[in-house]
Amino acid sequence: MSGERVGVVGGGFMGGTHAAAWAALGVPVTIFAEDAADAAGVAARTGAATAGSLEALIAGATIVDICTPTDTHAPIALAAAAARRHVICEKPLALSAADGEAIVAACAAAGVRLFVAHVLRYFPEVAEAKRIVDEGAIGDPAVIRLKRAAFRPRKPAGHWLFDPARSGGMVLDLMIHDLDFARWIAGDVVSVQCRSAANERPELGVEHALAILRHASGAISHVTGSWAYAEPAFRTSIEIAGSRGIVAYDSEEARPISSWLHAAPASGQGAVGIQKSLTREDPFRDELADFLGAIREGREARVSAADGLAALRIGLAAVEAARTGRVVDPAEVA
Amino acid sequence: MARLRIGILSAAHVHAPAYLALLARMEDVALAGVWDEDPVLARERAHAVGTVAAATPAGLLAESDAIVIAGVNRDHRALAEQAAAAGVHVLCEKPLATSAADARAIIDACRRAGVLLMTAFPSPWNSVVEALISAVREGQVGEVVSLEGVNTGEMPDVHGAWFVDPALAGGGAVTDHVVHLADLYRRIVRSEVVEVYAVANRILQEGFDRVETGGLVALRFRNGVFATIDCSWSKPRSWPTWGGLSIEVLGTGGAIAADAFRQRLDLWGRREDGASWRSFGSDANAAMLRAFVDAVRTGGEPPVTGEDGLRAVEIVEAAYRSIATGAPVRLDPPA
Question: Could you tell me the pTM of the whole model?
Answer without folding.
Answer: 0.95
